[in-house]
Amino acid sequence: xxxxxxxxxxxxxxxxxxxxxxxxxxxxxxxxxxxxxxxxxxxxxxxxxxxxxxxxxxxxxxxxxxxxxxxxxxxxxxxxxxxxxxxxxxxxxxxxxxxxxxxxxxxxxxxxxxxxxxxxxxxxxxxxxxxxxxxxxxxxxxxxxxxxxxxxxxxxxxxxxxxxxxxxxxxxxxxxxxxxxxxxxxxxxxxxxxxxxxxxxx
Length: 202
What we know:
Layout: H1 12-26, E1 33-38, H2 47-53, E2 63-68, E3 86-90, H3 96-101, E4 104-107, H4 116-123, E5 127-131, E6 147-149, H5 154-165, H6 168-182, H7 187-201
Parallel strand pairs: 1-2, 1-4, 2-3, 4-5, 5-6
């Protein structure tokens, strides 16, 4: 994250079309609410907490949780019963299209750096949820461009997800603010600032 991210587009109206195209490509209705997790299925990332929090949505036919970056076999030893509205999509070189089709990115890590995933999701119009820990909260401001939850608190995680998925107006506001906030982390802007700082101390 010190090097910034590749911005998909700086035009929010065009981004909306890209998001619609991504859903059409994957056959996902605009009425379906999609949460994604991107990363390894490990405790430190809050992965198992997210699965537990998702239990309250397991009977919601228009809610879907996509696990990007791992497969069911990766958690075979955990002996977890997974509802039908959780899908593993395996390792992906570039998760951009999954960010685009999602409403929410939820990675409730116990400890984390600033985090590329939160920035990338925001730049794709997906609302980021993180734990209220240093690092991600340098970018995510609770109630402005995302939501925070308590690390390890299953109820807090499910409440944050529910709040965004059940409130279209709030989701749109957070997504818009997340998008415009992410533009400040454009790798071109970051590179320029880094070069400027180096020049100032030479």
